[in-house]
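Hey,

The postdoc asked me to send both predictions to you directly instead of through the lab channel. I've kept everything plain text so nothing gets mangled by the mail client. Protein one:
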Amino acid sequence: MTNNKLDRALQSVGMITFVDYFEKFQDASLTHKDLVDMLKRDKNNNYKKSSIIAKASNGRLICKMSQDFDALKTTAFASHADKTTIAKARLLLAERYQ
C-alpha cells in the first residue's frame, strides 16, 4: 500500500474510528458484518450505513495490508487530530510496537 493509498484509507475510516476500533480491525475472528454491526451500535456516531461500511472496510484493509503501524504513527503525530485520539494512538504504538 502506497502512502497515498494509506492516507486515503485512513481518511475514509477516520482517525478517531481507527484508533477506537484498532483491536477490532485487527481481530481476524470478526467478520466484516461484525465490524459493521459494532459501528452501527456505537452511540458516538450517527453515520449512514454506506459510511459505516466504508469505515469497516478501510480499517480492516489497513490492518490486512500491515499498515497499522504507519496509520497509528500518522495519527499519533497528526496536527489536525484531537488530543484524545493522538494520546490513544501513541499509547497503542507504545504498547504494541516498542
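Protein two:
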Amino acid sequence: MASKTRAQVRAAVAARLAALSGWTESRFAADLFGRDPDSTLHKGFAVGLGNTEDRRADGYRGRPSEGLLTDSEVIVRFGFRLQPKAQNDTRDLAEAAGQELVVSMMAYDSTWPSDLKIQLRQVTAEVTPSGEWFLGTQAYNVTHTLPLL
C-alpha cells in the first residue's frame, strides 16, 4: 500500500467527486460549507478531514520506511436547492443526489480507491430554516498508510 498524507487523501476524494457530472467543489473549506453563492451551492460539495488514528497496537511507533497504518475520517458536505412548493419531492431528489456521491465513493474500478480502503460511517441531513436548502453530510472512514518520511 503506497503512503498518502491527509492532504492527499482529501484531494483524492475531492477529485473523485468533482468528476461527477453536475457537481462542483466549493471554494470554501468543509467547515465553512454553505457560504457559497446560490449559483454554486446547488450540487456543490466540500471535502474535509476529521481525526486520524493509528490502527496498530498502542505504543507502536511505526517505521519511517513503511509508514503508519491509519484511519482518517473524511467528511463530505453538499447542498441541494429545494423548491418551496414541492419540498418533499425535491428533498427526495436531494437524497438521490447524496446517494450519487455515496455510490461514487464506494465504487471499485481500476483507479479507485487505489491505495485507500473506504467505509461509509454516517449520513445526516438538514433543511435550512428558510426551507430553501438541503444540506447533507456524509462521514467516511478511510484506511491508508500515512508516510513517516
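Summary for protein two, as requested: The first strand starts at residue 24 and ends at 25.

Thanks,
C.
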